[in-house]
């Protein structure tokens, strides 16, 4: 940080695939777990990972029983609560 503050053109290189950070002629290694490495190398976050399954999710949603909670238009997101009279 001190070097970067002194010289705004100071370069730091991070190689996620190899697991190294280089700056000022020095190189440091770091480890990432397999999932984090996969996310970074592919530019994904948790939402992007979920969206990769959008077709499967849509197919599942259309096949669910109508009375279960749904994200489909025209369906309640949460089932309606029953009154005490309805449950007796």
Summarize the structure.
The chain is α+β, with helices and mostly antiparallel strands. The protein has helices at about 1-5, 35-40, 45-50, 55-65, 85; strands at about 10-15, 20-25, 25-30. A hairpin with a 4-residue loop joins β1 (about 10-15) and β2 (about 20-25).
Description:
Strand 1 (12-15) and strand 2 (20-23) form a beta hairpin. The protein is α+β, with helices and mostly antiparallel strands. A 3-stranded antiparallel beta sheet has the order 1-2-3, with no helix packed on it. The protein is 39% helix and 14% strand. The longest helix is centred in the middle third of the chain and has 10 residues, at 54-63.
User: Helix and strand succession?
Assistant: HEEEHHHH
Rg result:
25 Å
Alpha-beta content class: alpha+beta
Read across the widest sheet, the strand sequence of neighbours is: 1-2-3
> Stretches where pLDDT falls below 50 for ≥5 residues?
none
State mean pLDDT (0 to 100 scale).
Answer: 85
Number of strand elements: 3
- What is the terminal separation in angstroms? 69 Å
Proportion in helices: 25-40%
Question: What portion of the residues fall into strands of 2 or more residues?
Answer: 5-15%
Question: What general outline do the C-alpha atoms trace?
Answer: elongated
Number of helices: 5
Sheet of most strands? 3 strands, antiparallel
